[in-house]
Inverse folding.
């Protein structure tokens, strides 16, 4: 496939190299002259000099035939604009945007730019997965389908500890789909008894987290 | 009317001052505290004493936009020194905050033309300059 990568920083350069190594056709675009000259020594004709928020620069790179446009500059406005133009003006089927400041993620969403990848968010999610006192881990968000899968640890003294699955007071629109116990996971039945120390996976409509967590925290406290 | 100007450069601050003189409520947002001087310049009193509002903040920060009063704005003017910033915040004003009138300055004629087709009210000073210079240079009647 033909991929345009915008921004030859660490992320863009390495991405371009990996994609080339996998046999894809790649054009990397860099707007800073000195950086361009450094990268050009390795990637040669696969890197072009220019400001990819200028439409003619994208056209020179052949955006009309690009299968994928990846905007990974250090500037969120530039990444948003490049992806918006690629998608809406040049009808590029697939885009990927980098979010530098996670607070800008809402703007990417507003402009319909998906997926938008934030390194900060990715690392935060890993931390949440590794640090159990967070309690709730979001495993998967299917935004188009409006569904989420979360993981919760059942605390000692939680309302759900010792209850059968069909007794746990869950809001409408949520379901326990798996229980992880002693290193193994299984799909529970309605009469499976939840134990303290279990990790449970739930599928739910977005926004129900705060109604669900009290069932799994000590004495029904809200998760911090 | 309540007018929110984001970016107090030459254009933004001049428009803000004219709007205030014309009796409108005017709020200005700029990330540079020193840009306030542009607003005080040529005024008999300070911008605030004259009735203007000024907020220091980055245009993409929703909190800054809220503090500057975007929810009350009848008119939103995007006039920072970055075309892409202007195009993004103008769309935020239009789509998220439903500001009735959004005006966005874009220096690049190509981007201004395409976003105008998409329904943004873009103003391209470069295109005006091109047209004026062309007329002055080539139009025998000029």
């Amino acid at each position: 496939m033909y991929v345009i990568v915008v921004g030859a920083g660490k992320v863009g350069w390495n991405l371009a190299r990996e994609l080339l190594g996998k046999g894809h056709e790649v054009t990397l675009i860099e707007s800073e002259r000195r950086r361009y000259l450094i990268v050009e020594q390795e990637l040669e004709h696969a890197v072009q000099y220019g400001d990819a928020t200028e439409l003619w620069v994208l056209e020179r790179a052949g955006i009309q035939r690009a299968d994928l446009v990846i905007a990974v500059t250090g500037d969120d406005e530039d990444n948003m604009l490049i992806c918006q133009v690629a998608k809406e003006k040049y009808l590029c089927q697939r885009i990927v945007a980098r979010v530098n400041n996670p607070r800008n993620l809402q703007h990417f969403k507003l402009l319909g730019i998906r997926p938008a990848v934030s390194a900060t968010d990715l690392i935060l999610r890993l931390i949440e997965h590794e640090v159990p006192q967070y309690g709730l881990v979001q495993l998967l968000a299917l935004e188009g389908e409006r569904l989420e899968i979360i993981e919760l640890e059942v605390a000692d003294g939680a309302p759900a500890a010792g209850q059968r699955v069909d007794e746990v007071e869950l809001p409408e629109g949520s379901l326990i789909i798996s229980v992880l116990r002693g290193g193994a996971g299984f799909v529970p039945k309605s009469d499976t008894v939840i134990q303290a120390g279990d990790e449970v996976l739930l599928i739910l409509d977005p926004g129900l987290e705060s109604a669900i967590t009290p069932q799994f925290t000590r004495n029904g406290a809200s998760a911090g | 009317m309540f007018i929110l100007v984001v970016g107090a450069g030459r254009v933004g601050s001049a428009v803000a001052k004219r709007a205030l003189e014309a009796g409108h409520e005017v709020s200005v947002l700029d990330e540079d505290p020193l840009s306030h001087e542009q607003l005080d310049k040529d005024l008999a009193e300070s911008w605030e004493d004259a009735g203007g509002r000024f907020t220091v903040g980055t245009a993409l920060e929703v909190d800054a936009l809220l503090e500057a009063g975007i929810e009350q704005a009848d008119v939103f003017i995007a006039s920072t020194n970055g075309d892409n910033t202007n195009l993004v915040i103008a769309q935020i004003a239009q789509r998220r905050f439903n500001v009735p009138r959004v005006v966005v300055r874009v220096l690049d004629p190509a981007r201004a033309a395409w976003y105008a087709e998409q329904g943004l009210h873009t103003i391209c000073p470069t295109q005006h300059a091109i047209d004026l210079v062309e007329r002055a240079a080539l139009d025998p009647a000029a």
